[in-house]
Every structure is written in C-alpha cells, then in structure tokens.
Write a structure and sequence with these properties.
Blueprint lengths: L2 H35 L4 H34 L4 H6 L9 H20 L11 H18 L1
C-alpha cells in the first residue's frame, strides 16, 4: 500500500466519521420534532427518547473510537487496515431504520441550508424547529 493509498483511506474514513456525526445530528433533530409534535403524549415521547438515547450512546462511542483510531493511523500507517475494517453501527437494513436514516439525512441537510454557519450546539427556537420541520417534510415528499 502506497502513502497515497493510506492518505485516501484516511480521507475516506474522515468522511465516514462526518457522515455518522451528521446522521446523529439529524436523528437528534428528528427526536426534537417528535417531542414537540407529540408533547402531550408522554408515552410516544418517552419511547422515542429511549430509542434516541440508545442510538446516541452507540453512535457517540463508535465516533469516539473512530476518531481515536484516525489520529493513531495518521501517526502509524500500519493502522490503515484497522481504519478500513472499522464498522459503525448500522444505519440501514430494515424498513424502520431506513426510514429514520432518510429523515435524519434530510433534516441535517435542511438544517445546514436554513441555518448556514450556525453552531449545532445552539438550540432551535420553536419557530426555527417548525421551519425546519416544514422544509424537511417538503424535501421528503419530493424524494418519495
């Protein structure tokens, strides 16, 4: 394996990590919208909260491991194979997961479109969340 191959593998791995971060952010936005939409139905909100927290925990652990491996592979090129073999938690493979993944991707992209350069850590107002929701629904319908 040449150094160019290693460099390309590392760049691809960086993109995979960013995809996971974007996906998790989109799922977080999806949960916020569900929570707002069903705020009077605590059972729906509670069930979605448990699912979101589980996904968040698994994904954050995987991202942390991936970022550690990425940094080590930049120093030790022998770890490139480990980068290639690294697997993130699945984001597809069954109808429910596929549906949530698609919605999360759309929400993350629409967030970037509506709120460019905004820090993701800043909470959305009710108005901004509704604006994002409506915009994402329109994009989702277009893709169906």
């Amino acid at each position: 394996m040449t150094s160019d191959d290693s460099f390309q593998d590392i760049k691809l791995f960086q993109k995979k990590i960013q995809y996971q971060k974007d996906q998790l952010f989109g799922i977080e936005l999806f949960f916020q919208i569900i929570s707002k939409t069903y705020e009077k139905d605590t059972s729906i909100v509670g069930m979605n909260r448990r699912h979101f927290e589980s996904i968040k925990e698994r994904t954050e652990k995987a991202i942390a491991l991936a970022e550690t491996l990425l940094e080590k592979s930049k120093i030790d090129k022998n770890l490139t194979k480990s980068v290639l073999d690294f697997e993130f938690p699945p984001t597809s493979g069954n109808p429910i997961l596929d549906s949530v993944t698609k919605r999360a991707q759309i929400l993350a992209k629409e967030y970037e479109t509506l709120f460019p350069n905004r820090l993701r850590s800043l909470p959305l107002s009710e108005y901004e969340l509704e604006l994002l929701h409506v915009s994402a629904v329109e994009k989702f319908i277009q893709k169906e």
